Amino acid sequence: DSATAVAQGRQLITDEVEFLADTIALRQEKEIIDLLVSSAASGNAVNASAVWSDASSTPVSDIRTAIKNIKVNYHAAADTLLISPQVELDLLNHADVKDLFKYSGDRALLQSQGISRAIPNFLGLDVYVSDAVTMSGIESGGTETGLVGDTTALVFKRGADLGVTFVAERLTTRRFAIELRRVIHLQMWKTFIPTVFRSKLIAKISGV
């Protein structure tokens, strides 16, 4: 009947709105990560000694150098490491990282419910692992690209000191139906805020 049709139509609109809101949120996350990568001060840059999956690499030293560069250039203590799932795995498998946790007696790996469950805190940094991806197309031939690349790690100080990293208010929607008609009016609006970063609080480690 008409009431059922209207209810089903409303549910369809609700599903589409939620999908649209998730899509916009993902685009915002991509914009933020792209800005972090492009805004990183060249004076803080670190080139990894080798890819972190290589036994000859020195990820602990690379990250400590990035932390030091931020402290020297902006007199601030970095608190965040942003990496991809592949880089997280490379760190977990690296002998230097295993030894660090083995001999430090740090039980955070077993106790943490946080951010990266595998490496919740590392060298004084909270570890965030971004598993979000973008697609080149929706067809079967489309390719996925991670928002955080597998060759880059970012060290920075998050929060107000870094700048405005929340770029938009929550998506607001209003919908209303016309009685006895299969028509639903939908209003959507969002307020965007400029994003500003202090580049010297960001260090990019390349070639990881």
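Second entry:
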Amino acid sequence: TADGTVLRDYGVLPGFVFPTFFEVDDAGAMAYFGESSTGQIRSLDLATGEIRDLVQLTFNYDFAFDVVPGLGYVVASAFGSATNSVFRVDLVTGDTVQVAALGGFSGPVEVVSVGNLYAAVLPDAFPFPAGGTDFVRFEAADVTSGAILTDEADGTVYSGGFNSRSSADYDPATNSFIVMETSTGTGSDSIVWKLDPAGNRESVVATA
């Protein structure tokens, strides 16, 4: 509930893991969650409580539902550290198709109502250099073309020059994003930004 009261306990995983994401579909029927300790991504039927192993993607980081029902996108460094990639996942069978090889460390992914995919492109050096992270838009037709896309070469920088990027959330009502720029030793605060529809930093929502 809004005050933090637990309404239902869906169980305990077999061992300690580092959680990465937890997303609920628009119908409120199914949830999908990942962890980076073993790379396992699972589905949860919110009515029956059934938890099912869906697919394993090493160092999975973030998830977004596709506009096509039954599909989602997962960001993961599945081929080793700083090999950030985006995979389309069948949410029933667990089948995966790689759609992008971005390189660098993993960042957030979002899909907007017209099917365009937005992903953070981060450096492969840590701490991240100041201003070295971009938020890149990939057109829906390119994402579904069958080609494996790469950073800005196959997309468009929607909003650039961030010190890092740890999360992003799309608001279809205002056609805008809320994004988290996390301090990683560059001397800046962690900042939550609201971006306008053109990708400009419109306002600061919070700092830490």
